Amino acid sequence: MIKRTGLPLAFTAAWLAGTAIAQETECVDNLIRVNPAAAYTVDGALVTDNRSGLMWKRCAEGQTLSMDGTSCEGPASTFDWSQALVHAAGSSFGGYQDWRLPNVKELFSLVETCRRNPAIHTEIFPDTPAENFWSGSPSGRFDGRAWPVSFDSGSTSSFSFVTNNMHVRLVRDPS
Q1: In the chain, how many domains are there?
Q2: pTM check: above 0.70
Q3: Residue 172 in contact with residue 99, Cβ under 8 Å?
Q4: Other beta carbons within 10 Å of 71
């Protein structure tokens, strides 16, 4: 049985309610997000979310996938928000030229609130730092701030200054 861990789930669940990306699998109380391995198709260093169709890099920027595909090696890089946007736009990983920062809803779709430290499926996204990752979504309410997602607790916040350094996971829409 999965137990709630006292995370601020009511806000994030209500915020994502009704979106295609917010589809949840078996949950005890419909507030705990679980992303089973079957929700993804892994192809080496890339993974496709079968629900949204989005293609993700399995490792955070700065890390490389091990030869056996079970771990991400090296330290994950950090960027301020402007650097992260530029870095994403300039990536040609896997021969694709259309990498970008995910919006906050896309990035939050990777969160598993039944896990912590990190709050993500670690077989699919190995060695993910249990820290904040930038989304491409500006705050909208606060100048000079943007939305990160914490893969420590699985929460979001629009209060992060764009000058802060955070990790990055790139995404692309293959359609």
Answers
A1: 1
A2: yes
A3: yes
A4: 14
Q: Nearest to residue 124, comparing CAs of 61, 67, 53, 43? A: 43
pLDDT of residue 7 exceeding 60, the answer is: no
Structure tokens, 157: 């916040």
List pLDDT tens digits, range 58-113.
999 999 999 999 999 999 999 999 999 999 999 999 999 999 999 999 999 999 88
Q: Is residue 2 part of a domain?
A: no
Whether 4 is in a domain gets the answer no
Give mean pLDDT, residues 14-40.
52
Task: Indicate whether 59 belongs to any domain.
Answer: yes
CA-CA distances (angstroms) from residue 128 to 18, 57, 80, 115?
28, 11, 18, 12
**What range defines the domain where residue 99 resides?**
9-172
SS3 assignment, position 16: helix
DSSP 138-172: E-SSSTTEEEEEETTT--B-S-EETTS-BB---EE
Residue at 1 is within a domain: no
